[in-house]
Amino acid sequence: MTNYRYFSVGLFIIGWLFMASPKLIAQATQASPYIEKEYNKTPKAEIGFKLRQSEVLLNNSPQNSRKIALEALYLASQKKYRQEEAKAHELIGQAYMAQAVHEQALEHFLKGLDILQKIEDWKRVAHILNHIAVLYRRQRRYDETINYSKQALRLAKKFDHYSEIALAHINLGGAYYFKKNYQKSIEYIQSSIDIREKFDEKTGLINSYNNMGLVMRKLKKYQEALRWYAMSLKVNSGESGVKHMRSATLDNIGDVMTDQEKYKEAHEYYNEALKIAHESGVSLRMMEAHQSLYELTTKEQNFKAALYHYRQYVLLKDSFMNTSMGVKMNNLQQKRKIEVSKKEKELLEKDIKLKKSTIYRQKILTASATVGLMLMLILAFVMHRSRRFLQAQKAEIDRQNQALLFTQEEILSQQEVITASNEQLTLQNSKIMSSIRYAQTIQEAILPFSSRLKKVLGEYFVLYKPKDVVSGDFYWLSKLDRYKFIAVVDCTGHGVPGAFMSLIGFSLLNEIINEKHHTDPSVILRQLHEGVFFALKQEQSINRDGMDLCMCRIEEQEEDNLKVVFAGAKRPLYYVSNNQLHTLKGDRVSLGGRPIKTSKQFTNHTLCMKKGDLLYLTTDGYVDTPNPQRQSFKQHRLLQLLDDCKHIPIHQQKHIFENVLNNYQLDAEQRDDITIIGVKL
After folding, report:
1. Maximum CA extent, the chain
2. CA–CA distance, 401 with 99 (Å, rounded to integer)
3. Which of 87, 281, 311, 404 has the highest Cβ tally under 10 A?
């Protein structure tokens, strides 16, 4: 009886399925996407919260901001929320840019840009183009800044996105400012001001007014600069979101006061800027204020205060940002492995969805395949097989899910290792750069101050351009009795090794002239050679480092006459007398490196000169400077330049030397340290 009951029920079900199967198949085919959509749908609240949290942390803690944005990116990419995914890429790029890791910043900006172009969100496309323009501006690649700003500007104008138009104008104004095209800079900044005033964008106006003030300060229109800064302060109500910009504006006003040598007022503005920076909690503004106070106290020769502000500046800089401009992820094999794993994961997910859909349709098709008693038996057999098939499919899906989870964990583990390695390299580089910059402060402290040079020499100029942070060139000044000594020294190498050699040379010159009171230039050079030879233990070692030197001893005579005694080690003296340019060659031997024969003496050259005549002491860095074709400036060009400048006031000649060199060098890399001292007797 039980079997008969099952047989009747089965016939009824089979008949019904047979009649209804076409309709069910059609409905299942249409319903399947909706089922999958409902299956994948999750609330966006968590992703949105993470993105907002990342944006809040961006200014004060870019590293934590980046980590949270990465979590949001992972969730958004899983669920294919394209707008949230693009926003996460944008925030990660901004965080990397705040840490000066420019390659990764550009990579994420471009990924976000690709997504936004596909979904045709043109306002945000323009916004990311503006971000890329800012990134290139921070790398001092101003042509790329202009290119991306103009792309953003064209797109923003097409869709009437006025806030992005204003931002593009600000970027263009900044690029032309650094390219020293101040007229164009003013035009673009003024355009951004007009737009932001029209639409009452107060936050943007704060920035635009500040930028206009910077240009006016560069043009030495100090009252005009102060007017723009005052307008920025008036717009800035001091709310939490923009309070830190008051600190930036006050810092800029302090710079104007410093330019005008109003040091008391400058202190007041810098200290107020530092106070507001502390209240707003923005490390960048605190760092800028300490840097300004360090530079001001150094000018005032208040070295104790200067050292305090310099240390605070370095600590804030180390904690706030990554100072390595060249940190790169070179492990391409590892990167490729991660990309392959992501692709495998994507394919597995598609395969799982396809199999789920196939299983759903198979249930319906097998249920409507047979009619009658024989069909019931066939149905029973098929259902039995289907059950086994489904179990096998479920087991396979479970296995693939486990493999997928393992792959995800492996990817995350590899990313953590790479991130940790990059952070370690960044920290080490930061410590090295901090030490080198501290060494720069020490080296600058031993050079004669401008007040000392002016008191001893009168009218003069100094062109001093180290190739690296610290220099192998140095210049030295002393006054002993009736004699004035001036020397320009070129030590072997540049950077840190050259800087160590310069400290040895500086110490030996002080000892020979100021302590032992030797006044004969040829004797001074001989003793300086012996001092370098013994200090570096060159008699027992293969070390051949040394230095080239140009030295003059100046002695005033009766009336307007002066006696100049010159001695040189591989460096000449250029001088102008009776409106004629002359060259005196030094001895063809360097100081240090190899022993000099006992009988060999350096040569004194005595010149009788008059007040108004000119002396030029140089190292070889200026004539060795290359152009983009790697051709050196050469001595004949320097001689022509000296002859052209002999009628120009000495204090104006420095700018001429700089402009001629910049126009020749363009974007070519500096080859050596550069030092030129010009003296009007």
Report:
1. 144
2. 37
3. 87
In whole angstroms, what is the distance from residue 602 CA to residue 565 CA? Answer: 12
Q: Which pair of structure tokens corresponds to residue 530?
A: 């012996």
**From residue 155, how far is each of 111, 117, 450 by CA, in Å?**
18, 12, 51
Question: Interior CA angle at 354 toward 350 and 356, to 5°?
Answer: 120
> CA 292 to CA 290: how far, in whole Å?
5
Structure tokens at 624: 């060795």
Residue 392 has pLDDT above 90, yes or no: no
Cα 70 to Cα 68: distance, rounded to the nearest angstrom: 5
Distances (CA, A) of 139 to 122, 133, 319, 324, 426: 26, 10, 21, 12, 17
- Take residue 175 and report the two structure tokens written for it: 């690029």
- Please state, in angstroms and rounded to a whole number, the distance separating the CA atoms of residues 626 and 239: 51
Tokens of 395: 């087991």
d(CA 653, CA 644): 10
Question: Which value, to the nearest 10 degrees, does the dihedral of the CA atoms of residues 202, 208, 212, 215 take?
Answer: 150
Mean pLDDT of 241-252: 86
The CATH label, of 3.40.50.2300, 3.60.40.10, 3.40.190.10, 3.40.50.12780, for the domain at 447-680 is 3.60.40.10
Structure confidence at residue 332 (pLDDT):
37
Mean pLDDT, residues 583-591: 94
The Cα 272–Cα 257 span in angstroms is: 14
Domain boundaries, the chain: 1-39+344-428, 447-680
| Residue in the structure block whose two tokens are 């009795």 | 481
Query: Within its chain, how far is the Cα of 200 from the centroid?
Result: 32
Cα gap 602→569, rounded to integer Å: 8
- CA–CA separation, 249 and 254 (whole Å): 9
Confidence band of 652 (pLDDT split at 50, 70, 90):
very high
Instruction: Round to whole Å and give the CA distance between 228 and 193.
Output: 11
Nearest 10 degrees: Cα torsion 288, 293, 295, 300: 170
**Directed axis angle between helix 162-178 and helix 122-138, to 10°?**
20
Please state, in angstroms and rounded to a whole number, the distance separating the CA atoms of residues 67 and 355.
35
Q: How far is the C-alpha of 269 from the C-alpha of 257, rounded, in Å?
A: 9
The model's pTM: 0.43
Which residue from 53, 57, 125, 131 is spatially nearest to 86, judged by alpha carbons? 125
CA dist 545 and 601 (Å) reads: 20
